[in-house]
Structures are given as C-alpha cells and as structure tokens.
Design brief:
Layout lengths: L1 E5 L3 E3 L4 E8 L7 E7 L6 E7 L10 E3 L7 E6 L4 E6 L8 E8 L20 E2 L3 E6 L1
Parallel strand pairs: 2-11
Antiparallel strand pairs: 1-3, 3-8, 4-5, 4-9, 5-6, 7-8, 9-10, 9-11
C-alpha cells in the first residue's frame, strides 16, 4: 500500500489550497480514508475522513474535526483512486505537514470515524506534504 500526497505550498492567510492523495497497491475505496496534520512541536492532529464502500450504508459519509469544519472539504474520486482536501480561509495556525491516512478495516470500537477522533492509529500513512500559511 502506498499513499502519496501532493499540493502542499506556501499560501497567504485567507487563501485556499487543494491537496491530493494518490493511492496504489490497495483500493482506496476500502473502509475510510482521510487527513491528519502535524505542526512543529505538536502532536499529529486528525482532521477529516470519508467513508468507503466497506462502510456499507454509510458510503460517502464524512467527518470533520471542529478545527476545520466549515473551512475544509474532503472528496474522493474512486475511478482515479484519489482523495482530495480543499482548504479555504487558511490561517497561520493551519501551517503543518499534512498526511493522508487509510483505515483498511473498521475500528475496534466506536463510530466508523473513531480513528479520526484520535482513538486509534490508521492502518497506513502517506509521507506528508508541507502547507505553510503566511500572515
């Protein structure tokens, strides 16, 4: 399994950016896939995820953390095995390395997005892409 992020850049406060995550060696439309970020000196922070077909009735459901709800949008292109993160109204505190992450199976307990509440670690990680927001 390989996840490769791209799209990180330097952007001014208030600007927008699109991140992409390309998957190979595995069907991205598995259980859930989403994004984390890690700012310098801080722990990795879960942001958002989207449920896959293995989520059954909830295919396409999304989850957002409070820190990005209303500003970030996750989407998925199953045909291309790609996941995207549209980031609007960027702030200096959004500066971080952004990671794509995949849950290949349901979490041990809790809701389908439990991994993105910080309860568990994802099954797979990408290498990250740097986003820097200048004030």
């Amino acid at each position: 399994v390989r996840l490769v992020e791209s799209g990180g850049d330097l952007v001014q406060s208030g600007g927008s950016l699109n991140l992409s995550c390309a998957g190979s060696g595995f069907d991205l439309d598995s259980y859930a896939i989403g994004w984390f970020r890690q700012a310098p000196g801080k722990e990795r922070e879960p942001l958002t995820c989207i449920r896959g077909r293995k989520g059954r009735d909830g295919d396409g459901d999304t989850y957002y953390s409070n820190s990005v709800k209303g500003r970030f949008t996750i989407s998925r292109d199953n045909a291309k095995n790609m996941v995207y993160l549209r980031m609007n109204d960027l702030r200096p505190e959004d500066t971080a390395v952004y990671y794509c992450a995949l849950d290949a199976s349901p979490p041990f307990s809790g809701p389908w997005y439990a991994t993105w509440t910080g309860r568990y670690q994802p099954d797979y990680w990408g290498q990250g892409t740097q986003v820097t927001v200048s004030s």
